[in-house]
Amino acid sequence: MPLEFELCPGRMVGGEHPCFIIAEIGQNHQGDLEIAKRMIRMVKECGADCAKFQKSELEHKFNKKALERPYTSPHSWGKTYGEHKRHLEFSHDQYRELQKYANEVGIYFTASGMDEMAVDFLNELEVPFFKVGSGDTNNLPYLKKTAQKGRPMVISSGMQTMDTMRRVYELVKPINPNFCFLQCTSTYPLLPEDVNLRVIQEYKSAFPDIPIGYSGHETGIAITVAAVALGAKVVERHVTLDKTWKGSDHQASIEPSELAELVKSIRLVERAMGSPDKRLLPCEMACLNKLGKSVVAKTKIPAGTVITLNMLTVKVADPRGFPPEEIFDLEGKTVKTDIEEDESVTEGAIENYNTRTKC
């Protein structure tokens, strides 16, 4: 069984536990604290498990030239990339306020620490787990320092190779065993042909002692639901209040109605996954009693006759007789009482028949 661990207080992931659903608010709050709070409440009402943001200490994530780069995109909130990012970045006090609000609403709260200083701050906030964004998954010093803090980790794998993910596993596992990988493709929005859900199965094979999940940037919810059917134990989707809002992430995000439907569909699929034990279920008995077939006599079979297959056929019959899968076992058996044409063949009519154990 895949490793199970406590991702948040009282909430296990992996094994047979329900899929943990992360609603990635990210920076879709437009830099507005009240919108951020509305989004926290929205994801709680839609049934998600966690509201997640992105925290950066900009001078530690970007160098000066990157921050001074002109940013003329229609999605820009400033003349330079630095001005744009500062508009969207909440302060430490604002993060504390958002965390307090999430606690009041009753939903887990965390963020992706986009640099080592941001991780230090999130650790001070005592978030339940660290989310490692795809851009830092091959940042080995960052990963080591994050793992050493001892909190559970959710690690996305966009822009990475299988060789890199093996290195990440080998680095993190001895330090902090409580982590999982998310299959992810880093493009916004994500085309179906670039999703590669089969990587989930490959991860499960390569890393059998950690849970595997999925972080999606596609449109709609069907692919994420399919990921859960393939065994994803954690899923993450970007969310927005309005896909038409300014910002490059909104088009790859899902709106409240979609999030609610996603949660509902995931829980439905989890119920449907059921047991790998194939057996006759109690709920099937009504159908079996009405339509289940039995072995019947194709012609009259007198007492003392040794049965051959050409004497038998299969029909829906009253009373129930031998099930069709035992018809070949009847060949060569002796009939001890007359069986009329079109009559069910029952155990009582067969001499020395060894009753099989039936489900």
Q: Describe it for me?
A:
The protein has 359 residues and is an alpha/beta fold. The protein is 33% helix and 16% strand. Strands 5-4-3-10-9-8-7-6 form an eight-stranded parallel β-sheet. The model has no long low-confidence stretch (mean pLDDT 95).
| Computed Rg | 30 Å
State which percent range the strand residues make up: 15-25%
Number of helices: 13
The N- and C-terminal alpha carbons lie at a distance of 27 Å
Q: Mean pLDDT, nearest integer?
A: 95
Q: Which structural class fits the helix and strand makeup?
A: alpha/beta
Helix-strand topology string? EEEHEHHHHEHEHEHEHEHEHHEEH
Shape: elongated
Largest sheet: 8 strands, parallel
Tell me roughly what share of residues is in helical segments.
Answer: 25-40%
Number of strands: 12
Give the strand order, joined by hyphens, for the main sheet. Answer: 5-4-3-10-9-8-7-6
In short:
With 359 residues, this protein is of the alpha/beta class. The chain has helices spanning 33-45, 58-61, 64-68, 81-88, 92-105, 116-125, 140-148, 162-172, 198-206, 222-229, 256-273, 285-291, 327-330; strands at 5-8, 11-13, 20-26, 50-55, 108-113, 130-132, 153-156, 179-184, 212-216, 234-238, 293-297, 312-316. The mean pLDDT is 95.
